[in-house]
Design a protein that fits this description.
two-stranded antiparallel ribbon, 10 helices, single chain, disordered C terminus, alpha/beta, 225 residues
Amino acid sequence: MLYDLRPPVRVLLVDDEELVRTALHRILDFADAITVAAACDGPDAVAAARRLAPDVVLLDIDMPSANGLDVLRDLRALPEPPVVAMLTALDRADHVERALQGGASGFLLKTTEPRLFVDAVRLLAAGGVICTPPGSAAVLGRRLRSAPAVAPAEPEDLTGLTDRERDVLALIAAGLPNADIATYLGMGVTTVKTHIGALKRKLAVTSRVGLAAVVHRSAGGREQE
């Protein structure tokens, strides 16, 4: 029998509503290779992150007790900053844009299906980007289109991608399955699979997680300009 010897992904849950914290805690507790290090309100987030060194923080963007974007800034300023994804009850493009500019690696609606929260944490820990609101996928698509090209020898070179391939790549990073990508872009599922195969070849990756990680690196590189 083979055993996964990798340490579990450690998650910090930050939300002003105890009901939300409890629900997410229960969802993630049942997942393999994920452990909830702590759950707290906004004002306690940075201190908890310093003390517990989580891999991933799920952070409410709109808390009466603390501005989620300010907390994001402080978390990303830590010596070893965790990956942060914002939680929200609303799909607002302006929130998405500001959060991505602040270093967030994704956006999750609080109404997201429980299984997708588990998938999202794993994707984030692997270096990917996750955005469940439809508006956030559009923001990611715009950022990807404007991402600068890197050296041609690098696997993240996006200059060889068609516009349609960039659209598919952004939606993969947003966490959409093939059927939803097909609906969103008005194409067949088979066509989506063909684009994904081309993306894997062009970007020298072997999985959807690898494709999402390309978007994360491209967006991060743009912010450092």
